[in-house]
Amino acid sequence: MTTTYAIVDIETTGTDPKVDRMIQFGCVLVENQKIVGRFSTDINPSQMISRQIQSLTQISNRQVQKAPYFEDIAQTIYNLLQDTVFVAHNIHFDYHFLNHELVRCGMPRLTIAGIDTVELAQIFLPTESSYRLNDLAESLGIIHENPHQAASDAEVTADLFLRIEELAKALPLVTIEKIATLSSVTSHQTSDYIKQLALEMKQNPTELATDLMVVNQIALKKKEVTLFEQPLYEITYPKTKKQKQRLFQERLSYRPQQGKLMNLIHKHVTNVDEKDLLIEASTGMGKTMGYLLPLSYLATPEKPVVISTASILLQQQLIEEDIPKLNQLLDYKIQATVIKGKGNYIDLQRFKATLDAPIVQKQYGLYQMRLLVWLTQTETGDFGELNLTSLNHLLFEEIKHRGVDYLSKKQAFYQEDFLVHLNQKMTQSNFLIVNHAFLAQETRRETPYLPNSQILMIDEAHHLPEVMEQVTNQFFDTEVFQRQLRHLGEDGQLFDTLRAMLSQEAEILQLFELYQTILSEISEIQEEIFAEWLLPFQVKEELFVTRDDLNLSNQGKKNLKKLYLYYEESLLLQQQIAAACFRHNEQWLAREKIVYGKALIFFEELSAQASFVKQWFTSWEPRYVHKLYIYGSQNTVRMQLIDLEAAILPNTAWYPRYEKILYVGGTLKVATFTNYFAQRLGIPDAKLKVIPPPYHYDEQVRLFVLNEQVAIKELSIYEYVDFIVRTLSPILEQQKESTLVLFTSHDILQKVYYRMQMSFLENGREIIAQGIGGSREKLLKRFRHRKGAVLFGADSFWQGVDLPGDTLQLLIVTRLPFDHPQRPMIEAKSRYLDEQGDNYFKKEALPKASLKLRQGLGRLIRSEEDRGVMVVLDSRLIHSSYGQKLQQSLPKDLAIHERSVAEMLPEIAQFFKRDYPKEEIEADSPQHSVIIEPSKGVKSGE
To answer: Stretch 264-289: mean pLDDT, rounded?
Structure first.
């Protein structure tokens, strides 16, 4: 019997079926993998459609005015859907809302089977970054002519459904059968559909694809390690312009700035004695290719070039885009391997254990099914390929890799293990690509992961100091530790289960009982130390602690020594327990292996705690800042240790292991503090080379500063938000260009967003805001694909955001980018520099704000073709005592125009219509406006 699938989409006046009504119904009928029919209609909702819904759906009140009421077509829709399987993208909404409307009109409720394409997509399209219908359509190349209209959405959902079925049927039978057994957690009758697919595939078996293999009932993509091919002849670096052009041919255009960067790098590594070289190279000049090419002539698997970049995203960009592009030019090929922390990779043995003893929980099961499909596609086992916003879920805690040392060579998956494969690839790679956080953590690793080598290339180097500080910033919370111990000791939890698993080992069981006792002693003695010491202090208070503040009595000092002793004993005991567990690991059942993995995680956490607590109480050098937050009980605290010299590279374990280190970034120079960046890194003698950008800022950019002098520091939060809304609204209302609005505070950003977003949405323009509606990458994707969009961003949006051409034309800076002086890290740095006899504002705050302002401008101009307007709503750029120094950080050929909002609006409009000569702007400028000429100071515009 042929199954008819009714792929349904509805549009409504809102999300509450009790008060809202349908305005469109769309249905596509599918049989035997083909579309066999369509039905769609507008519906008169008997109520007004809000401007927000009109903007979203493009369905107007006039359009539905003469449409039938739902009461008139309810019977038709009900009859249409009888004897079908209801399919929808997020079935919970469409099925429920439609049923509510049918009942309201006196019709029976639908009882037909249902399938959710959101869940199907999450399972069978495991690497998609978004499961919104529009995003899936774009990713899969499905034409979506009218998003958020029922007929179009139903058509796209039908195409998606057919595409998913095709992908599912191409999977190995072992994979689809396992998914079928796990699918009971899916919505409605989605599980029945998957089981039917598995049955059909079993009845019509096909051969396993040649690029797949089955290991211990899991289908995996085959992996190969490509041997590095040494050049058969001597290769010579192309130093001259002609040599480079000959190499580039038609595939790459020669750029003078890029050529200069290449030669600088090659000369430093081959002909210069100094170890460190800093190079400022702007975005848009081909920076990545500028360092990859010369280094490719020097890199071998024996002495690989290590590249560290700012983020995992940039690691992927290097391996997926930049290196393949360079390999098209070279006779010999770069072989590069991306390296991440071990927790970023799946442990196949532990994953198999979760399949053998699954937890019946919806998200847990959806992730398991998704991973089964992904394992037929991935060669790396890197969770990053799944594009998840977070790995903070029980399943990933259970299956993330713990390292090769924890594997048994007897395991079925050992030879196919992803970390084993990664290590094999590293031996055949002449480029190893890491991120700054991974590099910073090398100092903490007992055994270095990266090899000693000749060259370390640090890309996006301006991010390095902050990353180094973040990685070394340490915390420990005694209250959390107490709760953890209570939880782990409950019936059925880790300690209880582990005790049962070791029940046949009398000696180890005795050690484990002693271990638990010592853990309780550690917790109690922590309480005693803090209860006595912190008695004079206020509760729920955060303190900076000095050595003089550590006023422990003789008993307190004894307790501290006892605490250290307990830590030592607990670490020795857990080593013995772990060794006993390892001996049993091969014989244990699946769920027991997972428990063993959790125990090892706890052991690692306790080791880290012991190390941290001792360091907190003993490290009193000026570089360390000790903080405490005292909870209400006064005997539990959150401890924090901040290392203010974390970014001093000669202090790290990895710095001495490289002969040459190159630091390349877009903003490394501060006009009034030339070696600021080198000093931050503890290499003050390092030379800084600046490659001038290829841009003509006088032609490509207009910079306006609001001439309304507002005492920002004296305003309350609400007054400041009022000021921003009042100033920002007319600019955004008149200018329809794509706009990025940069804030220095997430709190202010959100308050301004909630004040403005509804009125803008009602007028057909959406405001996209950081922290609201998705990850940074998702927000940027939405911004790029919506002409005239407005994006509110803070922190990470000041830098590292690539929005070329028309994607970004108007940049608005709401406030000069100084860090808030009351942030804990800023307070700590300020205290430290004061003690050193330095002025924090001059030595740290002002240079950082200068760099950040340049980075903000860098969002706007990223190529020689870009044109745009930058508006600064903070008059301190001109009128403060330090304004001149901030101006010096901006390009020399960029004039600053001081205007009111009313004065700048026509000039912005004129700039976007055509090139507008500077003289004409000066002549037409209203009275009381001011132009600051490049490098010439202030000039009256009258």
So the answer is: 91
